[in-house]
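Hi everyone, sorry if this is the wrong subforum. Our group has a chain we'd like a structural model of before ordering constructs, and none of us has done structure prediction before. Sequence below.
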Amino acid sequence: MQYSHSRLSTFEQCPLRFKYHYIDEIEPPEIEESVEAFLGSRVHEALEKLYKDAKFQKVLALEELLTYYNEIWKKNWGPAIKIVKAGYTEENFCRMGEAYIEAYYKRHAPFNQAKTVGLEHKVLIELNGHTLLGFIDRLSYDPRTDTYEIHDYKTSLHLMPDETARTDRQLALYSIAVRSAYKTSRVKLIWHFLAFEKDVVIEKTDAELEELKRDTLHLIKRIEGERDFKPRVSALCDYCEFRPICPEWKHLYKVEDLPPSAYANDTGVQLVNRYVELQDKVKMLSAEQEEVKKALTEYAKREGVTAVAGSGFKARIATYGDLKIPKDREDDVRALLQEYNLWSDASRIDMFRLRDIVQSYPFNPDNPNDSSWKPWPPELIKRLAKLLKKEENVRVYVRKMDNE
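Answer:
Right subforum, don't worry. Here is the predicted structure as tokens:
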């Protein structure tokens, strides 16, 4: 199988979608295209024409480029383009594209900063017998610095932090191909965030690329060893073309258009409704049981007893103190133990043991081997105790009483 960044990402996002698409090669039903994707395609096409003409010493005027953009927008627009964001129209998105192109044009004219090597440039990445395919929006070469540049245009309204760029796989994989094809170690990765008039530029080190190769090969090994290809539910399901046949969504599609009477009589619908009814009853009974447990505990305290008789049963009430790490204090506890170089030891101690360590302070200095762990510094125990939360736990044990 030939891989690509998009194929690898598809597997990471949902193994079942990967199987449907690339192994079973199921032809998905035609789905709507988002207006955001449509906008991105048209802007890419316009910038591709800009640099294609520039290669032939024909620099389009801004008005000519915008005219071309609007022509391909009108030519490709259709009822299948989906606008999800309420309150916005086709014109709003078309004008966004115009603004992106105009701002880019003014920043980079006359487009001679580097020599264009290829547009939608095909690259092949060879990794230990595996081949990955990719297409670079624009590959250019700067003779002044002897550097190749991989350009990627982004129309997203989300700006990628510079640090995130260092972990990006797609352009980094492309740089491996460019290094190999052109026998160079100088390759810049450039993301053009058109909505923000900002470029993110990085260069990957040899060590980073070697790590990327290992991670990518490990992912390929996972894919080729996968047997279950289970679906992974996420927000991306809203954009999946295989929802009608996916086991996570198939039944919902089956019943969504049924008339009310047929919907109510569907076996699956009836079973889910019954299960929810029983689940609600369990929750109500559990809440009621907690109330009775609380009242029984208060009664036992008031009467000064630890066991209470019932009709043929006896309830024993056991109350004990406990220590817990509050969720908002977990990082503080970890930092404290790391300060004393005890985190590696503590990570092997469960919460009950940690509780015993704190509750058994002060220690007997004359008998340091009275437990399986070495005594911790008293000042650490004091500081640790302030981070833990004291709670009172109650358990009720019910037993059948003897006949006599």
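For your construct planning: The first helix runs from residue 5 to 13. Confidence is low (pLDDT under 50) at residues 363-373.
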